[in-house]
């Protein structure tokens, strides 16, 4: 999210504007500080999903309204390429840091400093285009080591013995933390418990107890014969992912942080490099109360956790991170140049091992993340990128009109605009507008498919 919130207002005020003035747009909120006084959520996760379900801390959190005409209330987007000056370069050097194992290399720091200090005007080539889509050598994906594995064996590549043992230890510790006797939970019971949770995702019943109900339309034989109901409820009560005596006040996701880090490591290690990757946000539905919960009006999932995701074209989750406002792994260099939405992409790429990270990936994204500065930096790092882009991020002197292209000579970025159901603007560092074909689309006005 490209927000600094220095001149914003609260979520409560944003909702008043939205509801009382009947405006059309989306509300984006910054998660408040973590609440660690209690270990229990204050609302049921199966709640109604109404605005009234937001906590007081969330209603006081900073917010921004983005209207459908790209105007904003709460904070304004500034062109980072033109607004930085020499004093900001000094501040960038003073505050530059990465929290985590990957440190920003000297050549990237040099590129960022030169980018901010540069006052050269762009040189435009109107009507330019890439001759063909850039073809560069990329190793063919090799899935041979997974080909003969069963579904269970592939599952255990991610949820392995180390994670199961971690759940066993922390679940026992939490029972002792609450001054209860040791529940003597075993690794096999945890595996069975997780299997029941997975099954409940597609066999949805009114409550946990109904899986053992004797009713013909309720009881699930696979569940009832694998674990006793009271044992399942006991594990459910004590199940834990971290030590409650080691609270990190700066991490809103501290309760599941060890599990997140273990899963991130396994996702990256099992990633078979593919050239085409996509970066986007994903919402995990949740109606309870938590400081990381987001409310985005007009979306299919309005309430829940926002996850930054880097995926392959087949949907494999390469790397991910939980959005929580100020992230533990935030990079001040990245945020200053590319904003809070695009910065996690670079952090996720930095976490990939060297032998996989240095390949020439082609990254796709939407207009929430795209900017000339980001695409230039990705090109500098050896990556190609394609995405839609917002009008206020296209340089003001770009000679771009409908159904035309323009290329900035120095950065090698191609801008393209054409008319679909609405005006579409795109930016690319890898391919152009050649080999245009005809497609069919549904016309709302004529109620039929047309070319």
SSE inventory with pairings:
Elements: E1 9-10, H1 11-20, E2 25-29, H2 56-59, E3 62-67, E4 72-73, H3 80-83, H4 86-95, H5 106-117, E5 124-126, H6 144-147, H7 151-155, H8 161-177, H9 187-200, H10 221-224, H11 229-238, H12 257-269, E6 276-285, E7 293-295, E8 303-312, E9 317-322, H13 332-350, H14 354-357, E10 362-365, H15 372-380, E11 384-388, E12 404-408, E13 413-419, E14 423-428, E15 441-443, E16 448-450
Parallel strand pairs: 6-10, 10-11
Antiparallel strand pairs: 1-3, 2-3, 3-4, 5-12, 6-8, 7-8, 8-9, 11-14, 12-13, 13-14, 15-16
Features:
alpha+beta; four-stranded antiparallel sheet; 451 residues; 18% strand; ten-stranded mixed sheet; globular
Structure in words:
The chain is built from 15 helices and 16 strands. By secondary structure, it is α+β, with helices and mostly antiparallel strands. Strands 5, 6, 7, 8, 9, 10, 11, 12, 13 and 14 form a ten-stranded mixed β-sheet that branches. Strands 1, 2, 3 and 4 form a four-stranded antiparallel β-sheet that branches. Strands 15-16 form a two-stranded antiparallel sheet. Strand 8 and strand 9 form a beta hairpin. The two termini are 36 Å apart. The N terminus is likely disordered.
Tell me about the biggest sheet? Answer: 10 strands, mixed
E-strand count: 16
Net shape:
globular
Residues in β-strands, percent? 15-25%
How much is the radius of gyration in Å?
Answer: 25 Å
Question: In brief, what are we looking at here?
Answer:
The protein is α+β, with helices and mostly antiparallel strands and 451 residues long. The protein is built from 15 helices and 16 strands. The strands form 3 sheets. Strands 5, 6, 7, 8, 9, 10, 11, 12, 13 and 14 form a 10-stranded mixed β-sheet that branches.
């Amino acid at each position: 999210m490209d927000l600094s919130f220095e001149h914003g207002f609260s979520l409560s005020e944003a909702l008043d504007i939205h509801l009382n003035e009947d405006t059309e747009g989306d509300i984006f909120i910054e998660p408040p500080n973590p609440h660690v006084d209690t270990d229990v959520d204050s609302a049921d996760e199966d709640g109604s999903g109404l605005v009234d379900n937001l906590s007081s801390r969330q209603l006081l959190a900073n917010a921004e309204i983005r209207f459908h005409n790209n105007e904003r209330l709460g904070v304004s987007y500034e062109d980072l390429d033109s607004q930085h000056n020499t004093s900001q370069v000094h501040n960038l050097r003073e505050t530059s840091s990465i929290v985590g194992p990957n440190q920003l290399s000297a050549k990237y720091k040099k590129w960022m400093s030169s980018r901010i200090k540069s006052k050269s005007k762009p040189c435009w080539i109107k009507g330019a285009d890439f001759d063909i889509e850039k073809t560069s050598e990329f190793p063919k994906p090799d899935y041979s080591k997974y080909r003969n594995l069963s579904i269970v064996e592939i599952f255990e590549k991610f949820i392995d013995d180390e994670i199961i043992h971690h759940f066993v230890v922390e679940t026992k510790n939490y029972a002792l933390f609450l001054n209860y006797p040791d529940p003597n939970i075993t690794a096999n019971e945890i595996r069975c418990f997780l299997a029941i949770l997975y099954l409940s995702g597609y066999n949805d019943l009114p409550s946990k107890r109904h899986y053992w109900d004797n009713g013909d339309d309720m009881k699930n034989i696979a569940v009832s014969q694998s674990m006793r109901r009271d044992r399942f409820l006991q594990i459910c009560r004590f199940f834990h992912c971290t030590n409650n005596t080691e609270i990190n006040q700066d991490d809103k996701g501290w309760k599941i942080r060890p599990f997140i880090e273990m899963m991130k490591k396994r996702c990256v290690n099992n990633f078979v490099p593919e050239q085409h990757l996509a970066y986007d946000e994903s919402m995990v539905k949740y109606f309870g109360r938590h400081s990381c919960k987001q409310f985005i009006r007009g979306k299919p999932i309005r309430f829940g956790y926002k996850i930054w995701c880097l995926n392959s074209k087949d949907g494999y989750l390469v790397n991910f991170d939980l959005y929580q406002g100020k992230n533990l792994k935030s990079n001040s260099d990245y945020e200053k140049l590319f904003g809070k939405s695009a910065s996690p992409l670079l952090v996720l790429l930095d976490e990939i091992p060297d032998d996989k990270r240095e390949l020439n990936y082609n990254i796709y994204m939407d207009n929430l993340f795209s900017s000339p500065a980001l695409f230039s930096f990705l090109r500098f790092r050896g990556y190609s990128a394609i995405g839609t882009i917002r009008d206020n991020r296209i340089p003001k002197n770009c000679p771009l009109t409908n159904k035309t292209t323009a290329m900035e000579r120095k950065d090698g970025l191609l801008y393209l605009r054409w008319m679909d159901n609405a005006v579409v603007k795109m930016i690319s560092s890898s391919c152009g507008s050649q080999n245009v074909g005809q497609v069919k689309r549904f016309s709302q006005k004529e109620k039929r498919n047309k070319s």
